[in-house]
Amino acid sequence: MNYTTSDKGAIGEAAFRLLCAKRKYFCGKADEKAPYDFFLDRHDGRILRVQVKYRTPNKDDRIEIKLKPTDDQNNN
Fold first, then answer.
1. Distance (Å, rounded) from C-alpha 76 to C-alpha 63?
2. Contact between 41 and 49 (Cβ < 8 Å)
3. Residue-wise pLDDT tens for the chain (76 aa)?
4. Which of 61, 65, 66 has its CA nearest to residue 2?
5. Interacting residues of 75 by C-beta distance below 8 A, sequence separation 6+
6. Whether 39 contacts 49, CB under 8 Å
7. How far apart are CA 13 and CA 21, in angstroms?
8. How far from 28 is each of 9, 17, 56, CA to CA, in Å?
């Protein structure tokens, strides 16, 4: 199956939303012009900005999505 860039982005965003729901975090979609995709309320007084990336399908036509936190002052 051939995935477009838009398809890949939608898959990554759906996986992120599922993770947020599973962990009971509030996840809001950012404005189209924002430099990030979502904002996340962790219920501990912190609001996080999240940028979701996509991956190319592997040999068995699956897309592996790795989620990792970043606590870099220059790249929240």
1. 25
2. no
3. 788 888 888 888 898 899 888 988 888 998 888 888 899 887 788 888 888 877 667 888 887 766 666 665 555 4
4. 61
5. none
6. yes
7. 12
8. 16, 9, 25
Residue with tokens 């970043």, as numbered in its chain: 70
Length of the chain: 76
Q: Which two tokens stand for residue 75?
A: 């790249």
Say what the pTM is. 0.64
3-state secondary structure the chain: CCCCHHHHHHHHHHHHHHHHHHCCCEEEECCCCCCCCEEEECCCCCEEEECCCCCCCCCCCCCCCCCCCCCECCEC
Structure tokens at 70: 């970043």
Question: Is the separation of the CB atoms in 3 and 17 below 8 Å?
Answer: no
